[in-house]
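Need a sequence for this fold. Nothing fancy.
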C-alpha cells in the first residue's frame, strides 16, 4: 500500500487543528507538529542544554519542566532567535515525523505543521493544503491564547501566506462557520485525496 503524505499548513489561528480533526474523521492519520516539538523539548538533552544556555535557566522550573510560553515570548521577540530555534528543533521534529509516516497503518498521513515551507520540506509531500483566514478571524479565535502582538510576531516569523498559497495544491479559506469549513475539507478530500488513493 503506497502512502499519501499530506502537508497541512498555515499561520496562527487559522484553524489548522480543526481541519486536521476533520481529515482524521475522514480516515487520515494526522500528526501534530506541535506535539512533535513538545517531544523534542522534553526528550532531547542537547536541545534542552542549548535552550538554557541561550535563553537563560529561568525557562525551566525546579521540577525540570520548560515554560513553553516564556520560550516563545523570548524567541519571537527577535528574528535571529526565531531562526536559531527553528534550526535547533527541526532535526528532531523531522526525524519523528518520518518515523510516524513510515509506521502509520493508514494510507493517508497528514503532517499538521505551520513551518512546512520555512523548513523547506514541501518537496517531501504528495499534497500541500494551506489554510488561511481573515485577520479579524485570527484575532477572534486566538483570544485568551495569544495577544495581537503575539500574533503579529509569529506571523512575521513565517513565510508570507500568499507565497504558501501559490505553492499549495489546495487552499481553504476558513472565514465562516464550522459546517462551511467541513464542506471545504470534504471537497479537498474528494478532489485531491480520493483520486490519488483509488
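Here you go.
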Amino acid at each position: 500500500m503506497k502512502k499519501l503524505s499530506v502537508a497541512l499548513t498555515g499561520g496562527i489561528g487559522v484553524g489548522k487543528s480543526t481541519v486536521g480533526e476533520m481529515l482524521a474523521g475522514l480516515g487520515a492519520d494526522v500528526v501534530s507538529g506541535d506535539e512533535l516539538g513538545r517531544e523534542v523539548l522534553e526528550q532531547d538533552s542537547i536541545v534542552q542544554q542549548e535552550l538554557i544556555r541561550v535563553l537563560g535557566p529561568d525557562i525551566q522550573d525546579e521540577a525540570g519542566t520548560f515554560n513553553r510560553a516564556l520560550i516563545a515570548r523570548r524567541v519571537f521577540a527577535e528574528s535571529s532567535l526565531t531562526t536559531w530555534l527553528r534550526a535547533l528543533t527541526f532535526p528532531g521534529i523531522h526525524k519523528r515525523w518520518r518515523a510516524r509516516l513510515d509506521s502509520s497503518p493508514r494510507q493517508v498521513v497528514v503532517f499538521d505543521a505551520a513551518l512546512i515551507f520555512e523548513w523547506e520540506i514541501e518537496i517531501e509531500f504528495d499534497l500541500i493544503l494551506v489554510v488561511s483566514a481573515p485577520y479579524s478571524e485570527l484575532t477572534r479565535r486566538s483570544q485568551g491564547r495569544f495577544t495581537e502582538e503575539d500574533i503579529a510576531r509569529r506571523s512575521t516569523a513565517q513565510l508570507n501566506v500568499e507565497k504558501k498559497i501559490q505553492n499549495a495544491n489546495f487552499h481553504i479559506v476558513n472565514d465562516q462557520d464550522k459546517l462551511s469549513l467541513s464542506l471545504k475539507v470534504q471537497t479537498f478530500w474528494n478532489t485531491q485525496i480520493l483520486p490519488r488513493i483509488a
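For context: The chain has a mean pLDDT of 90.
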